[in-house]
């Protein structure tokens, strides 16, 4: 199993980024996928989840209305569209395959002026 995140970077407050997580080594369409983040000195927290079959989504309260998780089963990729970014969104963002429990290596998102 391999999960490779990309799309992180430095962005000003109010800006946008789209993260991607390319998956391989398992039948992607059969598993729910999640995005987590970990800020310095804090525990890793769940940001968003998308189910396997009919793409039911769920979000942390802190990102509702600003972030959108989606998936493309043909490309074995899950995305996290992040809008109206805030300083407190600064973290390393990880994708995870549910049930199997594998993690990607993470991608840094820094919101700074």
Describe the fold and architecture.
- This protein is mainly β and 113 residues long.
- It is 0% helix and 49% strand.
- It has no helices and ten strands.
- The strands form two sheets. Strands 2-10-9-4-5-6 form a six-stranded mixed β-sheet, with no helix packed on it.
- A hairpin with a 4-residue loop joins strand 7 and strand 8.
- 30% of the residues are buried.
Percent helix:
under 10%
Tally of DSSP β-strands: 10
Helices and strands, in order, run as EEEEEEEEEE
Major sheet, described briefly? 6 strands, mixed
Mean model confidence by pLDDT: 96
Cross-sheet strand order for the largest sheet: 2-10-9-4-5-6
Derived from helix and strand composition plus strand pairing, the structural class reads: mainly beta
Provide the β-strand percentage band: over 45%
Shape: globular
What is shown here, in short?
With 113 residues, the chain is mainly beta. It has strands at 2-6, 9-11, 17-24, 33-38, 45-50, 57-59, 67-72, 77-82, 91-97, 107-111.
Topology diagram in text:
Blueprint: E1 2-6, E2 9-11, E3 17-24, E4 33-38, E5 45-50, E6 57-59, E7 67-72, E8 77-82, E9 91-97, E10 107-111
Parallel strand pairs: 2-10
Antiparallel strand pairs: 1-3, 3-8, 4-5, 4-9, 5-6, 7-8, 9-10
Key features of this structure:
single chain; 113 residues; mainly beta; 4-stranded antiparallel beta sheet
